[in-house]
Amino acid sequence: MMKSSDVGRIRLALRDATMKDHRHVDALFSPYALDCRDDYRAFLIAHARAVGAIEPVAMPDRSRLPLLAQDLDSLGVPMPAPLPLSGEASDGYRWGLLYALEGSRLGGAMLARQVGKGLPIAYLSAVHGKGEWKDFQAALESAALKGGEGWLDDAVQGAQAAFALFAQAGADRVALHG
Fold it and tell me: What residue numbers bound the domain in which 37 lies?
């Protein structure tokens, strides 16, 4: 049995390994004014392009793609094609992708509060239920223990690939709209 002090060790290793990537993504998405219909629509399209590539490989317990599609449909926008995802879909890589996806849920509640009145917020409101983040961390630790040598390196590559997709989607919007 894992000690409670061990829970979060792998999450912290992934956080440290991807901190620069995470900051880059945050910087790319910070110009989006979520209270502005056009910016919010662009934000959701960018997320849909990244999440659409990541979720089929990461296989989260609760998919947010249908929620993204619902929000986009409310804005009169079809689901965009996902960006291409590169990398080997090993167990560790998949968990790295999942780490980035599940981590993005944490910020969803904060971002949902910034969304303009009358705009759809199903995607951003899909936050973790009570204890789900802690359960995810425990499952991540367990997968790492079973994964053996190289698992953490694969997980870091998966997380970095997820952040790279979000960065590409965010940068594409900046390149198109300034």
Answer: 9-172
